[in-house]
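Batch job 17 of 40 flagged for manual review because the log was empty.
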Amino acid sequence: MSYQPPNNEPWQSPPPPNTFYPQQPPYQEAGFPPSPPQWQQPPYQQPPMNQYQQWQVQAQFTKSYTTPAIITLVLYIFLWIPGLIANIIYLLEANKTKKITGTNPDGYGCLIAMLVLVVVPPALFVIFAMFLLFVGAIGASH
């Protein structure tokens, strides 16, 4: 069976079958009490932040570690141990910021490069000196 429009009207698509309004189940027909509404738990919402907490979050997103990297470089030039301590502290802070934001903050690469360039040469020197002492001790025992 197909839909036939009247002769003097343009052709229109047939009306859709009644699939949007299926027949009611027997327990919802007349004579039965209506079913209770389904309970839906509202979505969890975080409590609003106060102004200080908003400033903290904004500061974490916009924090730059370029100035601390320059301060660390100056400390390395004049005082090696305090420079190393400052570098480690600033690098730990930068890692926290990186974890919160998901991106490397400004100056993060400088802090890592300084740590590598300032710690690796003395560490290699100490390893080389210990190797020479070990070889000298073996040579002196024979």
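Reviewer: the log was empty due to a logging misconfiguration, but the result itself is present. The two ends are 111 Å apart (CA to CA). Unflagging and moving on to job 18.
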